Amino acid sequence: MRVCVLGLGQVGFPTAKYIKEKGIEVCGYDINTSVVERVKTNVNAIANWQDVPVVDVFVICVSTFLNNNTPDLSPIFDACEKIAEKIKDREFHDKLPLVSIESTVIPGTCRKVYDKIFYKKVRLVHVPHRYWSGDPIKYGVKQKRVLGAIDDKSLKLGLRFYKDMLGIPVHPVSSIEVAELSKISENAYRYVQIAFAEELRMICEQLGLNFDELRSACNTKWNIEILEAREGIGGHCLPKDTAYLASLSKYNVLLNSAMEVDRLYRQWLSSSNNVKNLSYKKY
Question: Are residues 98 and 158 in contact, defined by beta-carbon separation less than 8 angstroms?
Fold first, then answer.
């Protein structure tokens, strides 16, 4: 089996490296030549898509973004179009290549690329990454993952690749849309938890109480775990994925409120004014 990992950033590079360590032939592709130069001593990295061979498995690990608070999934579509062009006119018979999208997307994305870009001529799974660079040993490539598939044959091939060949524990779900929604829900849940801690800290400061002492007291209860309130909710994934989830439905009051709390908290941190002088913007 040969594998190609598209995107060699924070997730894609350790993914390609892990696959290589499993004794599987793997190449990595990235449009950024400086990234390719940086990682090519560890993996077979390629910057020219024309030089990428036709493989058995394509793993998509490109980043997705927000554009004016709207999900920007263009890197996914670009990667899938590249793959579709690569495999066009190839005779696979019943052994179609497996495409695994590990990047974060919104529900409906995988089915759209399956129908409109691949024209149903691939096996397709969505296995959202849970990689955390803060602890790549415990929370790296090999950790329990959700796996959703476009159909039963894709599910079977996806399980064989991830579970049997890579040794990654997986939790199969009934549809690819459930897998798509799971990733942004996980991160949005974490975002809301942090936002609560941020608001509680501001309340404590206004009342003249010590937030850390209150947090420690509350966390003595068996079902309570109030998080720390630090410098605001940063990083690429949590803010983006929370906005992704909020964009899907009118039932987003809590999510929008959490994002507003973080905005106010950041303002509060950078200001010497009392929190009561800051105002929430209206939605």
Answer: yes
Would you place residue 95 in the very low, low, confident or very high pLDDT band (cuts 50, 70, 90)?
Answer: confident
Which amino acid would we find at residue 212? D
- What secondary structure does DSSP assign to 12-61, as a single string? HHHHHHHHHHTT-EEEEE-S-HHHHHHHTTTSEEES-GGGPPP-SEEEE-
Q: How much is the pLDDT for 273?
A: 55
Q: For residues 181 and 111, what is the distance between their CA atoms, to the nearest angstrom? A: 13
pTM (two decimals): 0.91
What's the mean pLDDT in 80-109?
90
Q: Token pair 């990992």 is at which residue?
A: 5
The b/e string for 86-106 (b: 16+ C-beta within 10 A; e otherwise) is: bbeeeeeeeebbbbbbbbbbb
Domain residues of the chain, as ranges? 2-174, 184-277
The structural architecture, per CATH, of the domain 184-277 is: Orthogonal Bundle (1.10)
Residue type, 23: G
* DSSP sequence for 97-161: PEEEE-S---TTHHHHHHHHTSTT-SEEEE------TT-TTTSSSSS-EEEEESSHHHHHHHHII
**DSSP structure class, residue 11:** T
Question: Taking all residues of the chain, what is their mean pLDDT, rounded to a whole number?
Answer: 93
Confidence label for 271 from pLDDT (cuts 50, 70 and 90): confident
Assign domain 2-174 one CATH number from 3.40.50.1000, 3.40.50.720, 3.30.70.1130, 3.40.50.1970. Answer: 3.40.50.720
The stretch 243-259 carries a mean pLDDT of 97
What are the two backbone dihedrals, phi and then psi, of residue 253, each rounded to the nearest 5 degrees? Answer: -60, -45
Strands 123-126 and 145-149: antiparallel
